[in-house]
Prior knowledge:
Blueprint: H1 8-17, E1 22-26, H2 27-40, E2 47-52, H3 59-67, E3 71-74, H4 77-85, E4 93-96, H5 103-111, E5 114-117, H6 122-128, E6 135-139, E7 146-148, E8 151-154, H7 165-177, E9 182-186, H8 198-217, E10 220-225, H9 243-257, E11 264-267, H10 271-274, E12 278-289, E13 293-297, H11 306-310, E14 316-318, E15 328-333, E16 342-349, E17 357-360, E18 381-385, E19 391-395, H12 400-404, H13 411-417
Parallel strand pairs: 1-18, 2-3, 2-11, 3-4, 4-5, 5-6, 6-9, 9-10, 10-11, 13-15
Antiparallel strand pairs: 1-12, 7-8, 12-13, 12-17, 14-17, 15-16, 18-19
Helix pairs in contact: 2-9, 8-9
Bound molecules: pyridoxal-5'-phosphate.
Residues 52, 54-55, 73, 96, 188, 191-192, 227-229, 268-272, 365 line the site of pyridoxal-5'-phosphate (PLP).
Amino acid sequence: MPNFSLPDEVFLRAAEQFPTPFHLYDEQGIRNRARALNKAFSWCGDFREYFAVKALPNPAVLRILKEEGCGLDCSSATELTLAEACGFSGEEIILSANAMPPEEFSQARALGAYVNLDDISDIETLRTHGGIPECICLRYNPGGQFSIGNMIMGNPGEAKYGFTLSQLKEGLSVLKELGIKAFGLHAFLSSNTRDEGYYPALAETLMSLGKELAAEKGLRFAFADLSGGIGIPYRPEDPEPDVAAIGEGVRRVYEKLFPQGGVGIKTELGRWMTGPVGWLVTRVVHEKKIYRDYIGTDASAVNLMRPAMYGAYHHITVCGKRDLPADHVYDITGSLCENNDKFAIERKLPEIRIGDLLVIHDTGAHGWAMGYNYNGRTRSAEILYTREGGYRMIRRAETAADYFATLDIDPAGEKLTGRK
Length: 420
Ligand SMILES: *Cc1c(COP(=O)(O)O)cnc(C)c1O
């Protein structure tokens, strides 16, 4: 079931203060989720969540997560800069990327961040760009299919990430020569999975491998990084994965393999942390009836790409009409000249009128962040619904001037940006 923790009132009041569309995030909700995760892993003396910045790269949100004890998982130079600007440093940061520019290694090392190597060739790149640290993380790709029981959870054999097993062994030997004392192992084998067995199965894979490689190479196995991948209930019929049960499942694996402790656990959840505590709020501006009934909104796929890109389901409610019967069928669209610009297709909803406020649920991760400027449309503002029950604009909406800011020759651009 999507998250209905905020009453319509909260969205209606926000829309009186700020022009639509905007993403609204619930500060208390973010804190609650961070606390639930930390509690689920509190049995581990060395646990930390490294929030995946790419999911919701807003400084206000990152600072809230810092207050809740989280670190950050960064995937680019810009995200490292953002992390530093928000007060994160050293071991509070992990750089995890793929085919990245070598300078990003140097930047991560200068910050004292953990580096998660994606490929065996990255060892030489890191050696010459920032140097090899004492403790390093390696990303593992077991290949084939990743299954729990007879359920296929993912297809690592088709994924671009990570080292093969033989590369891990060779890589650790090279890294030992270069001076490492300890290593962590990372893998991301299944995305948006609500199966409570995923993390425990992944923990088993990484920890048994880590134990074996540590013995073989004479190195210390420092941590397992379970990365992201825990899913959320986008659809009304979806159950919410129980994070306490997930933590418990990982604990059982841990205590079996490392009864004396001494190994850390890291997670890099993005979607699970903030997905359900963000909503895209948009106004109905148009209706047309042809072969179907189309409701046009002032938001579009540039504000939320997941439905267009993945055919993803996002629950939609009409403010003030939650209790009315869903006796109409609509396609809810944006304005892009692109027929996949639909937030919902043949969705049953109460009767919608122009001017109604729509709330699109579960946009708090991979929502604003995946925005783009197709059709000259611009990204929306982000609003924080604070613990005190107030509203804070934590990112203004883009304007046409932002769109023209990277252009030199457009006369309209000169006028708009004031450049000569
Ligand atoms: C995207 C990503 C995450 C977060 O994934 P979610 O599905 O949002 O949990 C974590 N770690 C890495 C390396 C990623 O690329």
